[in-house]
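Example 3.2
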Amino acid sequence: MSRQSLRSAIVAATATLEAAGVPSPAVDAEELAAHLLGVSRTRLGLTPLVESSWIEDYQALVARRAERIPLQHIVGSVQFGQATIAVGPGVFIPRPETEWLVDWALKAIADIRSPIVVDLCAGSGAIALGISAARPDARVIAVEKSYRALAWARRNVVTHVDRGGTPVELRGGDILDPRLLSDLDASADLVTANPPYVPDGTVVEPEVGEHDPAEAVFGGPDGLALIRPLISVAAGLLTVGGVLAIEHDDTQGESVPALLRNRRVLTDVVDHPDLTGRPRFVTATRVRMASTTNNTTISGMTGTGRTAQ
């Protein structure tokens, strides 16, 4: 059986993917080769020659990617911080930008022993598992409405536990259902969320428009349809001093922080950029809201906490 140059095969694959409009053709060509060889990209140079049968299998993978099937669907997973997240049809693919939110969140709870963390709109469980992997002492609760996404999250939690990680609690249901999280009212040290936030009608890449679930991407005419009520849910979950981090569209660097500043129980509202400098996620801290009734000062965190202003 004849042997051929791996580098030549990757160069040809790069040209094919570039012609198909793939955003990062060289990287994807190498990732597909590494996947098929069962090695990391950094070790591709250790395999200068490959069998012709391998070339055929490789070209088949490249052809699928040229059809704009997401790379992560082809290889079956995506690396997210310390966690390897399995993904496929029916679940949103975690993006590298979200790792910045996780990094911030971990720093925010670094001094809290056994923190309680709630991840809303959990999707594949990437944020929850990224936090759990770094903080095995944390109690992490992930909430997801889509049964298809929840199935992927369960799979990822099982893998996480099999590898020695702390179990992450999964709850299926609508985060706007006051019964779903009522036992956690005013108890979370950290609430995270990567909700659907892309304004309806926005032109997106085929990998997103044809393969990511629309309900995980688009958030109404201005992209804020779920973010608006989610802020109230998050505020009600937070304990005094607890922090909130919400990812948003790069066009919402002013609108989402403004929504948080309008809530009297939230302070220290800060918007954070991603690697490219674009607005990416907003953070805030829960404060005690006091009011005076019959000369008695009471906390604003009463009832279910869902009415936080």
